[in-house]
Amino acid sequence: MRKLLTGVISAALLSSPALAAPAAKTDPYGGEEAFRSLYKELVETNTTLSSGSCTLAAERMAARLKAAGFTDDQLTLFATPEKPKEGGLVAVMPGTSKTEKPILLLAHLDVVEAKREDWVRDPFTLIEENGYFYARGTVDDKAMAAAWTDTLIRFKQEGFKPRRTVKLALTCGEETTYAFNGAEWLANNKRDLIDAAYALNEGGGGRTNGKGVSEGGKLVVESIQVGEKGVQNYRFETRNPGGHSSIPVRDNAIYQLAAALVKLQNYDFKLELSDTTRAFFAKAGAARNDDLGKAMQAIAANPADTAAEAVLNTDRTFHSMLRTTCVATLIDGGHANNALPQRSGANVNCRIFPGHSVEEVQKELQAVVADAGVTVTLAPPLRPIAKTPPMDPAIIGPMEKLAAKYFPGVPVVPTMSTGATDAVFLGAVGIPTYGVPGSWGNPDGNGVHGLNERIEIKSLMTGRAYLYELVKAYTK
Predict the structure, then answer these.
(1) 3-class SS of residue 52
(2) Domains of the chain
(3) Which pLDDT band, with edges at 50, 70 and 90, does 332 fall under?
(4) Residues 142, 111: contact at Cβ < 8 Å?
């Protein structure tokens, strides 16, 4: 999912002066070679829905944890009979405290499809080239899955006794709407297994000014994801008796659908701010020296400032951060080239501002269409209401403190993702989930979900060190 934050933070801060590159870090306990081996094995395990196996990847990570000293009762491999290759792993490292609730480390093992004929390099072979690792999943999300697994292995090797229990959930299904989703399954069926005070997840991270740090670029921001939009698809549909195309009438299912979609095209949901987005616009806006920066600060101070809203609406990312958005993504209709259409339909994909139900948005869409001949129905699967976690200083503080150590002079900005992660399923059962800073990418998205996905090796290793220290800060 990480690609969804590429434009958000870059657009907010790239107009500010380039800031210091991350301080060089050394691994105080060694083990980089072992981490590279773990990361390589995970990346080269194909976990696409079409031909891969998350279950195999989970088994391989479980074997490494067991070799480090985890016992069988601390490792739970899971899969359903219907989806045997879409399984996952929960690992538990018990803490010494009997009163403090655990923390949960979450990462998904599945990756987006990748065709060898489209890529310059084999997408399922980890290739090191010019300071980058190339392969599908090098970023999304196997960098985090590897770092979390490595962190628990290092804790065991050091003999570290965490004060609070640390849990790790490696799951499948995040990348495919209609696939079995391991995080959702755990939340609904094994809530006790993953019970935690809060979870750390993908969605945060840094952005450069265009080049990798090892290429002479600068890191300009690190972000903490504090909340995200919900995702829901809706079906717009019209029906008609049809007839012969040689004697057309105005009452046409395709025209009726088209009229409804034009209404949607011209409709804006109302502007809203959460604690997260208010802080984002205030802090990110202050770092800019342009009209957008002024508008960002103005909207944070006064959400009713229509002039500031008009300026922000010119930026597609900021427009989306300020409201629910719905857009037509698929269309179908008709049954013969010489017949009037009897049916026409469209898929409308909505990204729902936290706190609103899918039924509430459905009702508003029906009102926008204002045509009883156009039905608006919920398209499965139904997602829970997105809930924004609190800006808790006990959680945000350690992230900011460590960021100051690893990335001196680089601002740390809270943000709400306009996309979605598996955090929505944990939030629905009362586990607030945060996307953590650490590794960084370039504004072009580093090929995530596209061709030639890559991560700067310096970013991967710095992120690994940051996440290790962060988990220890929460648990020592």
Answers:
(1) coil
(2) 2-229+386-475 (3.40.630.10), 230-379 (3.30.70.360)
(3) very high
(4) yes
